[in-house]
């Protein structure tokens, strides 16, 4: 099966056009230690889309759990102050999963502001900011950025102005796929059960049973 998949990928025009090659850094890695339970440690980043959507959004606020790999993708406008980022963080993560102990991020202006530092200090969260020479310390968010870009290319319109409408779909696709690091999907690990997927109804055991005589009538 793996041989067939590789052959298909090598001959797929969409895959060759949309998916770049990746290579591990040619230096020693210095990642942060992995947390011991879901929600304890997060990675954050801002991904620029270079295209302003029809609703005025320009950036994607990426939040990913470093243990479960569960992700939240939030559209942001071109000018987003630190107060707005704090509001998005509380509404899209803290409300559902509580306060993290650690947050890994780069040194974006919102993350280095005194207001952000004060807000996370009040909730007992420790900031773990990366250096320019060791971006892999926030590698989870960086890898997710690449995955989001690849998936968006398949679903957005040619003019790309609807990318923010697809973020919920992209986050669902990512969180429902088995992750190579954990062996289970992020949703299954975080929620402790496997959510019902849109294609599950195709499985014979999930299809609604037909009424008496329906099948016999169909085969006549």
Automatic annotation (TrEMBL):
Domain of life from the UniProt record: Eukaryota
UniProt name for this protein:
Integrase catalytic domain-containing protein
SUPFAM superfamilies the record matches: Ribonuclease H-like
What InterPro entries does the database record attribute to this sequence? Answer: Integrase_cat-core, Retrovirus_Pol_polyprotein, RNaseH-like_sf, RNaseH_sf
Indicate the segments forming the Integrase catalytic domain, all copies.
34-194
Q: Name one Pfam family in it.
A: rve
What are the protein's GO molecular function terms?
nucleic acid binding
Q: A single GO BP annotation from the record?
A: DNA integration
Q: Please list every transmembrane segment annotated in the UniProt record, as residue ranges.
A: none
